[in-house]
Amino acid sequence: MSNNAQDRIVKPTPITGYPELLPEERLVELAWLDRIRTVFESYGFCSIETPSVEAVEVLAAKGGDVDKEVYGLKRLNEDDPEKGAKVALHYDMTVPMARYVAQHYNDLVFPFKRYQMQKAWRGERPQEGRFREFMQCDIDVVDNDEVSLHFDAELPAIVYEILSSLNVPITLHVNNRKILEGFYRGLGISDPVSAIRIADKLDKIGPDGVRKGLVEEVGLSPAAAQSCLDLASIRATDTSFAQRVRALGVTNELLDKGLEELVFVMEHLAHLPPGAVTADMAIARGFDYYTGTVYEGKFAAYPDYPSICSGGRYDNLVSSYLKRKLPGVGLSIGLTRIFSKLLKEGVLPVGPKSPTQVLVAFPPDGDRKLVLATAQKLRARGIKVEAFHEDRKWKVQLGYASKKGIPYVWFPPEGEATAHNVKNMITGEQVHADPDLWFLPS
Amino acid sequence: MSNNAQDRIVKPTPITGYPELLPEERLVELAWLDRIRTVFESYGFCSIETPSVEAVEVLAAKGGDVDKEVYGLKRLNEDDPEKGAKVALHYDMTVPMARYVAQHYNDLVFPFKRYQMQKAWRGERPQEGRFREFMQCDIDVVDNDEVSLHFDAELPAIVYEILSSLNVPITLHVNNRKILEGFYRGLGISDPVSAIRIADKLDKIGPDGVRKGLVEEVGLSPAAAQSCLDLASIRATDTSFAQRVRALGVTNELLDKGLEELVFVMEHLAHLPPGAVTADMAIARGFDYYTGTVYEGKFAAYPDYPSICSGGRYDNLVSSYLKRKLPGVGLSIGLTRIFSKLLKEGVLPVGPKSPTQVLVAFPPDGDRKLVLATAQKLRARGIKVEAFHEDRKWKVQLGYASKKGIPYVWFPPEGEATAHNVKNMITGEQVHADPDLWFLPS
Fold it and tell me: Are B97 and B114 in contact (CB under 8 A)?
């Protein structure tokens, strides 16, 4: 790297798919992150962080159509350019969490209840709601042999509580893969996974597309394909879906088990506002690793926008590492997806450009030590304080506070005076105040 | 990706250089991150986050011997394997911050005071204190044309306050590149940057190595090389260094300016405990972009461990993007480096495996709704509560609380009883309590 490289003018341009916030937007995002973490912890979930990368073989050992979207890492001056990447950025937090549980199995207490708020990366073509780098807030429970159905109901209630408190109304759709697989098996379909994949495209290709796919690709009879479509049309905000599924006349043990599980979940979400949760037989979720409950949440206000939280139950994710069954259930909040949409729609309460609550002004020919000591006295009581850095005109200092949205400006005494004054920048009111006693009006 | 890939057993192994914490360790790290953020914000600094990647040309336009350590990103199935990476993971937060300031110039208020707590990546050979992925906590001030020397003193005071409050005693060494460059120019050295680079290796190659390098590589006379070594030997915990530098008999305008700046900084750090800050003429810092104050902090307890916080003043970092002078000064706390060392030394207060404060037990044949409602009542007052998920033996439930380090177990009434009870898991004491009124003993 030559030293004169510094002399080039390189105009910076945003990198597509990698969102970046202004300070005033970031302040709101931070408040959201705090809120999400607080609620996760209020239910006793512990935080973990996994590295941004996993071994390529770990990422490749998992289901889902994601391999083409995974970013491998290689040093820019790697000696052997032919050598493939050995590590790659994770594309979600579920696969890393499964690896974490397997690796640290003996140090964890089960049921292992963890949350994980980290960035993930996918090499997708960027479009509305799809980013190459995005923040996910995941919450999962993993247990030995069996994970209690209790958590299938607790997790969506937690996510609902979070999003409601952030003023993000959602519609949460819940299904159970056992219902789909059992129903399809009951119809005599030998490859239900392929059929589920086609049925999952209902939103995108419509009922005729699904019918065609089921008949031509999976070899269903037109009548069986129609039954699949009939199943996918069933939705209910209570447990009445079970009756309607049974009325389709298909019988299968796995189907019964799935209905029983989804009834439990719906019953234990009944305390949420009417319509918040819908049992929806059209929901399948793309990842093959789901084996029971599946979730998909959307903005109530923007139903065409991609799902903003999703997840489900997986029985065999960790067991690709250990000869032990460690099923789990989890939900993921797509924070970047939610936040970027609300920002674009202009509905976020974006306020000041700084967390500062008080600016201590620098009086003309003032004593820097008095300015700093005053600021430190206020800070000692938890107030966020900037000490203005130089003897500049009042206009400059007040203009600085005003541009940053700082609500109070503090004036240490000038010359022979001894009284401090504090000015409310919104009302303009200015009063005497003692830096050892003054509190921020609440 | 074939479906039966899931059937392979892939034993997970840690990836060298990518640290990962257990939940009980992560709880301590989270408390540290909260503390660091709280102090940064108490001085009115705003948070920003930049993407994990920058354009390769942005990273390459900056000084420093880092290009060989930068990780480029390429999708695993990239069509054209010959094509080089266009974006790469950032190796610090200074270069991304400079790009951010240039890109969002019109939306920022100056002096721009920001903190940034993010991961960075370097393809170094992992060794003690050196990681491939690590968390940095940076604080910088950037201003138009000129940045007040006030901040050269404020930033180390902030970092000192943070590390003291985390019980991490440090020794902070401060110097000014103008002293070095001015002194070297005063000696008639035409390429002071090369000379500074050699002198910076004093710790590694010793005085004889530095003397040899200065004579053989930069062409100094043995007497001039000795003067450089004499300069590098000057250290003081007050402003007496200036007198001693001047006593070496070299005169130069830039040297005078540097001494004046460092005297200001030392005077304004005089309120810190004696010995906390040392003016140290041997400190140069590797990055070429520093032009004034430079900082290097080490563990007081482990002086041979690499520096745990560092930074300095740069005049021309942002100006490679804009035809405008935007100098800055910053300091970076190497969180991963600090945390990993203290963890290894066993001196961190690692406690419970979960944030949970109360476990609401599930009584025999109990009512799940009563368990959940009790937990929700406690949560409503900010208590972190797990509801035990199933009707299991008391022994199992108490064992779970005990293994996780949960301090209180709550027993909802059983059968005909109406009283709730709460058990202190440390003292064993159990008392009646009302879920609508009970507070965590402080």
Answer: yes
Q: How many domains in chain A?
A: 1
B47, B367, B396: best mutation site toward chain A, by most A Cβ within 10 Å? B47
What's the CATH number where B138 sits? 3.30.930.10
The pLDDT score that the predictor gives to residue A2 is 37
DSSP alpha helices (H): ranges in A43-122?
Answer: 56-60, 94-103
Q: What is the CATH number of the domain that holds B370?
A: 3.40.50.800
Domain range spanning residue A378? 358-433
pTM > 0.90: yes or no: yes
Query: pLDDT for A130-162, tens place per residue?
Result: 999 999 999 999 999 999 999 999 999 999 999
B248-252, B348-352, B366-370: lowest mean pLDDT where? Answer: B366-370
Q: Do B76 and A85 touch (CB under 8 A)?
A: yes
Phi, psi at residue B172, to the nearest 5°? -105, 120
DSSP A67: G
**CA B70, CA B60: separation in Å to the nearest integer?**
9
Out of B160, B189, B209, pick the residue that ends a domain. Answer: B160
**Which runs of consecutive H residues, i.e. helices, occur in A217-332?**
222-232, 241-246, 253-267
Q: Mean pLDDT in chain B?
A: 92
CA distance, residue A327 to nearest chain B CA (Å):
14
Q: What is the ipTM of this complex?
A: 0.94
> Does residue B193 lie in a domain region?
no
Cβ separation of A30 and B47 shorter than 8 Å?
yes
B389 contacts A42? CB cut-off 8 A: no
Of the candidates A72, A113, A114, the beta carbon closest to that of B76 is on: A72
Query: Which residues of chain A are within 8 Å of residue B288 when distances are taken between CB atoms?
Result: 3, 6
Q: Give a yes or no: residue B406 inside a domain.
A: yes
In a domain, B225, yes or no: no
In a domain, A376, yes or no: yes
Note whether B400 contacts A109, CB cutoff 8 Å. yes
Query: A17: nearest CA in chain B?
Result: B51
Chain A positions touching B62 (Cβ under 8 A) are: 5-6
Cα–Cα distances in Å, from A383 out to A11, B48, B157, B163, B166? 39, 21, 17, 20, 20
